[in-house]
Amino acid sequence: MKINGDFSKRVLEFSDEIQWIESPIKGVDRRPLDRLGGEVARATTVVRFAPGSQFSEHVHTGGEEFFVLDGVFQDEHGDFPRGSYIRNPPESKHTPASQPGCTIFVKLWQFDLQDRTHVRTDTNKLGRVNDAEREGVAVSPLFQDERENVRLEYWQPGVSHAVNAKGGAEIFVLRGTITEAGENLPKHAWLRVPIGYDLTIKAGEKGAKLWIKSGHLPYVTAPFTG
């Protein structure tokens, strides 16, 4: 299966407008944003857990990264409320569930397969640093290695700046609005731009809170499933 599989093109999706699709697990639905592969896939997805839903224990051979958009995500490692950022590296395993229900923005099979770094961060308790080169923008780092830089960015109302997309970039709008290339991106809009794209965004009248990943698109591959 291929959804938005041409990584040389700019892609914009308004995730709140995408129809929910049932997963193989009862009570868990998905809104696909991009996908290379079948049920095992390199994928970017918004996933909704109904209250009381649960997966069986499974291994993330290619790693899993997610941000909790609402509710509480749960597994044997703890309860992760809205605003939690989690990285489960390749070969890690867990039993995902949510008694109260939750919605997450999740990326699968997008790790260095040798990565073994776990990250479990409650961003509600995370500080932020003003960007010295972009007035009106503050940054909370989430993860960085040789392949990618993942962070939250907080944009003051009306500010406009470039975002480094030398190695490609993705933006998921968590709060507020931004504009890019003449298009308005509201809450839960997802933008992916290709390597070398000239990316400049402007925050709306109430500012914006953004999840941003950059530098990672030179490493796009579909999972090998044998």
TrEMBL record:
InterPro entries for this protein: ChrR-like_cupin_dom, RmlC-like_jellyroll, RmlC_Cupin_sf
Pfam family membership, one: Cupin_7
Highest taxon listed in the record's lineage: Bacteria
ChrR-like cupin domain mapped to chain residues: 11-111
Designated name of the protein: Cupin
